[in-house]
Amino acid sequence: MFSDVLLQGRRVDLRCQSGPSRSPTPGLITAIEAAGTLVPLGDETVVVGGMLTPPTAEPHVHLDAVLLGARVPNRSGTLREGIANWAAIRPTLTREDVLERARTVVGWYRQHGTLRIRTHVDTGSRVAVEALLELREEQAGSTEIQVVAFPQEGILRAAGRREAWEDAVALGCDAVGAIPHFERTTEEGWQSVRMAFDLAERHGKRLDFHCDETDDPGSRNLEVVCAQAIDRGFGGRVVAGHCTALHSYPNPYAAKVCELVATSGVQVVANPLDNVVLQGRYDSYPRRRGITRVDALWEAGASVGIGHDSVMDPWYRLGTANLLDAASMLVHVAQLTGEDQMRRVFHTLSRENHLPFGEAPRTAVGQPATMLWYAAADEIEAIRTREKPRVFVSGVEA
Length: 398
Fold this sequence. Notes:
By secondary structure, this protein is an alpha/beta fold.
């Protein structure tokens, strides 16, 4: 039983029945009443105070590359060197190495209450693709994993890349990825967007783009993604990650694009930990933060998620798999320090971050008693301390 906990903005008592964590009929929430209403039953354990939320979800990480940062240090700190270092080490990957590193980081995510993970996998490595698809099945009883077929170096820049990308989707990846701003020309970038939609339609898949991850205000792939989503009826099934060029767009054009994102149902996923260090590298002072316009997207009615992106990999040497780190970075660099803004950022982790997987879980009577309990008194304190929550699965502490 939980007594006097903060849940969805009010203080309540909550009782749940416990069940085996892998049971097909997990423990359910049986009662939610005003704080001070429920009385402990017998020797029932009571957790007092703090805050309850649904588990969090990770909408954007690269599990094939985690923990490789020390092997191939990114000495310039740039996105391009990260890609080059990854390309150099990619041929040496083994199934065992990919699985060992990925398992370690999935474990870190679980310790922080993240029970759904969408990972990109570079389709330039068949070894990595097969390993992460194996990981998906292996972890199915404890962590839901989706795998995005991601062509890190594009699909039109060199022979064989398109075929490897298509093969990865045919092997069973959950979503089709692309990186239009990295193709050779603007026109080929737009072509790659259309090819990705074609491939997704053929296989009945969702889409997840690395989109306009650049400071160049002339990089304008997001509007093409949105237009394709509208024209093909893909609303709610498309993610556009990074979208950092939106930070540098002229304001009138940015307003148009934000409205288009909202109309299309495309979800933008910001990755503040990576982008605050990878963007602005061509700037002298003042240097741009390079984070997409989260406040403007919210104002337009668009859905925004928050990803960790990298965990000690060739792009970002740091990282803990704690999504509160990403939330804290976003609050700071996007200047979202208003009270309501900070609360919205916190709840994004357990609400909008689930949308790539389908519906967000609810903490309500009759729902599975899979929840996170934070000692923090409220959302702002949780972001400030970035504490590790206690994780309850089917009413049992994991």
